[in-house]
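Sequence of Cysteine dioxygenase family protein (Nocardioides renjunii).
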Amino acid sequence: MTATFPSPTQQRTSSTPTRPTPTVPTPASRQQVARAALAEHLGSHDPLRSVDLTVPERTWVHIGVRAGADLWLITWPPGSSTGWHDHGSAGGAFVVLQGSLTEYVWTGVVTASTLPSASVREFGGSHIHDVVNHGTSTAVSLHAYAPSLAAMTRYELVRGRLQVAGVEQRGEMW
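Predicted 3D structure, token representation.
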């Protein structure tokens, strides 16, 4: 699709007032908001300072809203995993602060990427993935979601296909 925009030198010939068009965040702008929130938070905070690396289960803590995105700090003991899920309508980004994580992405087939410390990953709302700590020490990551994370769909891999296992609403499980 192609759009043509009037040049700044073209003048309006109609005297009819126009209403502003509501801004609908695009997936790319949601990812940009999330990435900016991560950078802003990390510029003024050391999230690792408050992390307990001895907890034997994956933990997640909501640390607030910054630059229009919901921020969550997640610790990943060895072997922990999110399971297959999406983020509803939220796009986002996360940065690995310590250790490394492997992200399995579903696009009809499974692909995997290992994300070492300082790696940043952006994703749209339709992104289905499973994140796993295959390492031998606890990993830590900081996640940002825009708009605010309200629901996640959980999936099960059955005979080479993903099937919806349920939908989690904010406040019920996290």
